[in-house]
């Protein structure tokens, strides 16, 4: 009888652990991948007739490294832009705040808030809330 009680206890404990591991999360679909890192500009686009239309980012100067967005642990955002015949790099520094699946980047007095559509170890896809422009960055 003691073995039966022990087995029932283990089964009940296992069921309780399973039930709590399957509960809904408070993060409302927020990804747990860290957002910090350097992301290279890959594609831009928008939604047309309910479909995403993305093209290679025209902001990337031909023959140069790709423009980038670097999000640092200190909540500093660095935007790198390669331009011109000699691929000169211009870096603009600002700040960023992530709140659930919103990313707000502020440079000077200008802020832009985007929905984080996808965040993986290899990709950051955001959609600007004001303009609807989709930007895809890769690591």
UniProtKB/TrEMBL annotation:
<dbReference type="InterPro" id="IPR024311">
    <property type="entry name" value="Lipocalin-like"/>
</dbReference>
<protein>
    <submittedName>
        <fullName>Lipocalin-like domain-containing protein</fullName>
    </submittedName>
</protein>
<keyword id="KW-0732">Signal</keyword>
<dbReference type="Pfam" id="PF13648">
    <property type="entry name" value="Lipocalin_4"/>
</dbReference>
<feature type="domain" description="Lipocalin-like">
    <location>
        <begin position="49"/>
        <end position="126"/>
    </location>
</feature>
<feature type="signal peptide">
    <location>
        <begin position="1"/>
        <end position="19"/>
    </location>
</feature>
């Amino acid at each position: 009888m003691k073995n039966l009680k022990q087995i029932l206890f283990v089964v009940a404990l296992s069921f309780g652990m399973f039930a709590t591991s399957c509960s809904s999360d408070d993060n409302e679909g927020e990804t747990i991948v860290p957002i910090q890192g350097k992301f290279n500009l890959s594609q831009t686009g928008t939604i047309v007739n309910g479909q995403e239309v993305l093209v290679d980012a025209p902001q990337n100067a031909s023959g140069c490294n790709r423009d980038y967005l670097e999000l640092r642990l200190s909540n500093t955002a660095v935007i790198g832009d390669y331009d011109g015949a000699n691929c000169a790099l211009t870096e603009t520094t600002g700040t960023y705040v992530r709140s659930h699946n919103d990313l707000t980047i502020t440079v000077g007095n200008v802020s832009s808030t985007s929905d984080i559509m996808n965040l993986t170890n290899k990709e950051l896809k955001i959609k600007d809330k004001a303009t609807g422009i989709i930007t895809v960055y890769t690591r």
